Amino acid sequence: MSQLHVVVLLLSAVIAAAVLTCVDLFSLILGCVLGILLYRCLATQFHKLILSQPVTNATDASAVESLPATSYEFNHAVVNLTVSSSWFNLGYWKETFHFEEACQALARKLANAAALKADDVVLDVGFGCGDQDVFWLKQFHVASIYGVNISERQTTTAQHMVTAGGLDDRIHLRCGNGTELDIFRDRMKLPSVSKVLSLDSAYHYRTRELFFKQAFAALDSPGRLALTDIILTAPPRSFLGKLGLYLGCQLTSVPLDNMCDWTTYKQRLQRAGFHNINVEFVEEDVFPGFADFVDRHYAKFSALLRPYLWLKFLVTSKLLRWVSNHKVLQFIIVSADKL
């Protein structure tokens, strides 16, 4: 190992320790900023050095060796080290301690909010690696699913899984932008869409309000939009609170405008043309559960990966505990109808 690699590991350990021991908001913000910045700088440059020791478990080895080159795209591999799936959402943890089951539970909650049924043609925006689409097809027997996702690598992974499962005739996945659904619809020659779904990704869209308008245009009448999302409990009033929100949005690639409260969120849905808007607040069954999972997962597999690859997850765990304890963010399951 070179001297540079030693310095990298030491810096990662120091910043991770600082983040995990901070007790006030300012030190939390500072620690998280430093931790995520270091993570972003190093993840791509040192991707080839992911393994810190030989891997003997075949499942673990295949997951780690398939890690993509960019930090965002290998998140699913880090949390699925012991399973063959590629799920990656915050999960719904009310009745499970297992990551894959929690992800499926959240996907099921969303499907129920959408009232999926056998004759539905679904447009899935932000499908990740495609696990949710296979799940919805098999569990709810929808007619067909069309999906758009911003990551080319994830899209390729999802397409391979669909082909391997012999589902090419019912699941059609392409790379594209969730706020350019009009272009996607023309390119894919989409039939009438009865449901638009977005599982744990809409807070990243630039902007979410534009996505609402695009989803409304894509839906047949009647049709339904259903999504899981993250919003503010209330807008911050203090300078430090506003600074923390701004930095958090910058470092997590969430447009600042997307971080609104429920009143504003509902108004934006209404402006897009939606009616019969329903919401379920489930943050107490989402944030702490994912944080607990990260801690357990790290304790079990910390020796498998280089320390800096855990930084994002450790920081996320710390932040989720803080926002959960202080009621800063809400995790919502929303449905809205096009009449």
Average pLDDT, rounded to a whole number, is: 81
Q: Beta-strand level of the residues, as a percent range?
A: 15-25%
Rg, Å, rounded: 20 Å
Strand order of the largest sheet: 3-2-1-4-5-7-6
For the terminal residues, how far apart are their CA atoms? 62 Å
Low-confidence stretches: 1-23, 42-71
Order of helices and strands: HHHHHEHEHEHEHEHHEHHE
Main beta-sheet annotation: 7 strands, mixed
What does this structure look like?
This protein has 339 residues and is an alpha/beta fold. 49% of the residues lie in helices and 16% in strands. It is built from 13 helices and 7 strands. It has helices at 3-21, 25-45, 58-65, 75-79, 99-114, 131-140, 152-164, 181-188, 208-218, 239-251, 262-272, 287-301, 311-325; strands spanning 121-125, 144-149, 171-175, 193-198, 219-232, 275-281, 329-338. The protein has a 7-stranded mixed β-sheet, with helices on both faces. Strand 4, helix 9 (208-218) and strand 5 (219-232) form a beta-alpha-beta unit. Helix 9 (208-218) packs parallel to helix 11 (262-272). The longest helix has 21 residues, at 25-45. The chain starts with a helix and ends with a strand.
